[in-house]
Amino acid sequence: MRLLRIHGFDLNCFEFDYDLTWSAFLMNASGKIYGRFGGRDAKGPDTRNSLEGLHFAMAAALTEHRKNPAANPEQPAQKPVYAEKLPAAKMYARNGCIHCHQVAEILREEQKSAGTWMREKMFTYPLPENIGITLDRDRGNLVNDVKPASPASMAGIKPGDTLQTLNKNPVHSFADASYGLHKAPLTGEISVAWQREGKSMDGTLSLTEGWRRTNITWRPSIMDLLPSLSVYGSNLTPQEKKALGLDEKRLAFRQEGPIHPSAYNLGVRENDIILGVDNKILELTMEQFLGYVRQNYLIGETMTLNLMRDGKRLDLNVKLK
């Protein structure tokens, strides 16, 4: 089934990452979903996809379908939810079309109206790397790498293992794993099962505060929430940093002119040395620093901009716009 528009389709059934460029449901005619395919990260729209991976996920879904071709959805029937009928959709439906990323915006506005929205809910469909797992691109449940001291490592998962379920969700693709993590709590524990050399194993993943966070600046649904700190300039050389008594790896760049009006209004002046924010020692370049701000702060939040002027430390209180 190919959906060219989201109008008229029940969001309880077609629940996916609405910011994606492309995604697929592997399902039967009764609405039983065997798996999903599709996904991305900040590097690009197809960094997690391949034809081999799609074939692997389709074959796994077909195997499950053949076990019970008449299988019905696991979830009991719920009242259908249509994006275009939600109150917050009125501002998007002027042209008779709601883009998929606007579904995420509509649902966010609905949560705000209900008082249930919170900052962490921006971080939808977390990457498997957030729990310490790197999955194979072509064989979507094969664990290629496990980060030391991560939740996955603490649970006992090792490279070469095959994921079976994540948060009780069958895994045959990156999208399956991401969906399982999307349904996980902001903190707490979820189940995980895997195979090693044909032997079934299981464990628990402990999720601490902030585990969902990753680079989400690519998501069109949150562009209205991300700030822009309009500072820019040339990174200092190691020699220049040493002369100022700074570590050669830390962030330090010289503000160039002409200064953007918004930065000038904050108190930034030409030749200021930008050192970071909130007294954090960041080992970043100027370009990485601007991305860091967008990844970690929202419009309307306040922070302290740390800089040096004429060799003296200066802190500016900034409200992000």
Secondary structure blueprint with pairings:
Blueprint (H helix, E strand, L loop, with lengths): L23 E4 L5 E5 L13 H17 L32 H15 L18 E3 L7 E4 L4 H5 L6 E5 L2 E2 L3 H9 L5 E9 L2 E9 L25 E3 L2 H6 L9 E3 L5 H6 L6 E5 L8 H11 L5 E8 L2 E8 L2
Antiparallel strand pairs: 1-2, 3-4, 5-6, 5-7, 7-8, 9-10, 10-11, 11-12, 12-13
Rg measurement, Å: 23 Å
Average pLDDT, all residues: 92
Alpha-beta classification:
alpha+beta
Order of helices and strands: EEHHEEHEEHEEEHEHEHEE
**What profile does the largest beta sheet have?**
5 strands, antiparallel
Distance between the termini: 42 Å
**How large is the count of helical segments?**
7
Mass-distribution shape: globular
Largest beta sheet: strand ordering: 9-10-11-12-13
The number of E-state strands comes to: 13
Portion in beta strands: 15-25%
Q: pLDDT below 50 for ≥5 consecutive residues: which ranges? A: none
Helix content: 10-25%
